[in-house]
Structure formats: C-alpha cells, structure tokens
Amino acid sequence: MAELNQDSGKKGKGGKVRSKKNGGKVDLTAMVDLAFLLITFFMLTTSLNKPQAMDVAMPDKNKIKEQQSDELLTADNRSLTILLGSDNKVSWVYGQVARPIEGPTVAGYGADGIRKVLMEKKAYVPRVSGGKDMIVIIRP
User: Nearest CA to 83 among 73, 71, 74, 93?
Assistant: First the structure.
C-alpha cells in the first residue's frame, strides 16, 4: 500500500516536552490504481487504432459472354479515363477512350497537372450530367 507520511514534530533544543502530533496518513492506493487504469487504457487504444485505407469501387463484370470487352459501360459525359505513362506523366481522356469528348492530353503528377484536371472536371461533370458524380477510370 502506498502511503505519504508527513513529519510534523519539532526537533529543537530545550523547552517543554511535547508529544509528536500525528498529521494522519494519506492513502495513495486509489491514485496508483487510477494511474494503472489510465496506462492500460491508452496502451489499448493506441494499439487498436490501426491506419485505414479507402475502399475502391470496382466495376461489375459483364455477365453475358458476348458483351465482354475491355471497354467499361459508363456515360461519356461522366467518365474521365487516366492512362498511366512513363517519366512521371499521365494521359487523360474525358469520355470513352474509343470516342473521346476531350483529349487525349498529357499531364504531370503535380498540382498544375492531373490534380488540376480532376478538380476542374469534378466541378464541371455534375453541371452537365444532372447532378451525378464523375467516374474516374485508371488504366495502366
């Protein structure tokens, strides 16, 4: 048991002999228990907090064998296809690759590159498609 003892007696020369006053005991058991509870709580919460990744929405596979192709069935005015290239460059096409509305255009990975295109198209697509979100297709 943890205790805090305080000395309240006088240690001087001469004078009257007085009895030592007992200041009482302060029991620190509850404080030690609380410290251990806090330590275990924070150890558990930090070990349970794992990094999480975003879910990626994958397209459905075509069930009919005659219709199977590399081309995805998406609305032309909603899709932006990003083609990964070499030398830190990407090509992007607004619409389908076979029949583009805009592009193909080469851009970099910087803030003035593909990010700028994505932000512009993110604002533009809901206006032309009746409030529907943009579909981004990334191809190697």
Answer: 93
Sheet holding 135-139, edge to edge: 100-108, 89-95, 79-84, 135-139
Give CA–CA dist 78/134, Å, rounded. 5
Q: Half-sphere exposure of 15 toward its Cβ, with a 13 Å CA cutoff? A: 6
Residue 93 burial (10 A CB sphere; 0-12, 13-18, 19+)? buried
Q: Is the pTM of this model over 0.90?
A: no
Give the whole-angstrom CA distance, residue 103 versus residue 65: 31
The answer on pLDDT for 33 being more than 90 is yes
- Please say if the pLDDT value at position 68 is more than 60: no
Q: Determine contact, residues 104/93, Cβ cutoff 8 Å.
A: yes
Name, in order, each residue with C-beta under 8 angstroms of 137's C-beta and a sequence gap of 6 or more: 72, 74, 79, 80, 81, 82
Residue 98 — φ and ψ, nearest 5°? -70, -35
The span from the CA of 88 to the CA of 51, in Å, is: 27
